[in-house]
Each structure stands twice: as C-alpha cells, then as structure tokens.
Fold this sequence. Notes:
mainly alpha
Amino acid sequence: MVDSPRFWTRVGGVGGIVFFISLVVLIALMPLSHSIPEPAFDAPSNAFLAYAKSEADLPFALWLVGVLGLFGFAMFAVVLAVRFRVAGDRSNVRSTLVLLAAGIFIVLWLAELAFAIAQTFRRADLDATGASILFGLSNGIFVVSWSAIAAFLAASGLAALSTRALPRWLGRSAPVIGIGLFLAGAAPLSAIWFFPYFLFLVWVLATSVVLFMTKPNSQ
C-alpha cells in the first residue's frame, strides 16, 4: 500500500491541505497572541517595540503550527514534482525547477520564523531599535518569499500545461497568480499583495484536492 503511487499522491494532497489549514489557523489566531494590532511594515520603531512587549504565551504553539504547515507544503511540492516528472517522460528539468523554487520558499519562511522566535526569546531585553531590526528582517524575508512563491507557481503552471499532469485551469492560473505576486513585491507597503497571496493559497488547496481525488488509473 505505502509503495503505490496512489498512496503517495494522496499524501501530497494531504500535505497541501495541511499547509492551507495551518495558514488559516495562523491568520485567525495570530491577532490573539498580542494585545495590540500588528504594526505596518513601515511603522516607527516604538510601534514594533510595543507590539513585541504585548506578546502572550500563545505564539510558541502557533510556531509549531507554522512548522507543521511547511512540512505539509514540502510533501505537496515533492509529490507534485514527481507527478510532473512521470508525466513528462521522466524529464528532470520541470520537476527540478518546481523543487528548487519550493525549497527556496521553505528556507525563507523558516528564516522568517527564526527571527520571530528570536524576538520572542529576547523580548525582555528588547529596545525600540532591536525590535525594529528584528521585525524589519522578518518582514523583508516575507516580501522576498513572494518571488519564490511566484517562481514555484510559474514552474508548476508551465509543467502542468506541458505534461497535462493537472487540469488545464490549474496550469493556466498558476503563472498568472505568480506574476501578480511577483509584481506585488514592487509595492510591499500597499495592500495589493493580499489578493495574489490569497489566490496562491486557494491554488494550493485546489491542487491538493485534485491530487487527493486522483483515480488510480490516472497514475
């Protein structure tokens, strides 16, 4: 059972769903981890210090949810890359690009998570400058990760269209969402990035459902 392509395809689908749910949980519960709202990317240093000092004990549980989500995305990306490789007569180019972009994205998000945890560990010793630097690094990495997501979507979309390993609507929509997220990096202080970012999450969820529901004879 565990050696069957059908089993591992479902594992990838579950991984993507776990990633989606974990982010929804983080988005919903993160405001509860602080007594004041999170400041904007370009807020003054004192605002970041006040936000850091208002942190409750909940974030450590939230970080675990985030790590679980990243592991889920890793499974999703690996299964997707293997699916492209098999459908593309075992060509390594498309699957390698998907894995490379996914790996960069995961590393960036782990680095962002590390800065957030570091800020939590040193909360008692933080001053306005230290809080501003840690939040600036974390937010900067988050913005850079949009380009990694864009590369992942572009590689996945092109591979899907050339191999027909996914429905065409998923293949066509992925590069479009990726371009939108890449362009959003030019205006990170505006709210425009929310839309392509949300569409990225929806794309992962839709692709995960397709993987999970794939029939055995399509392997």
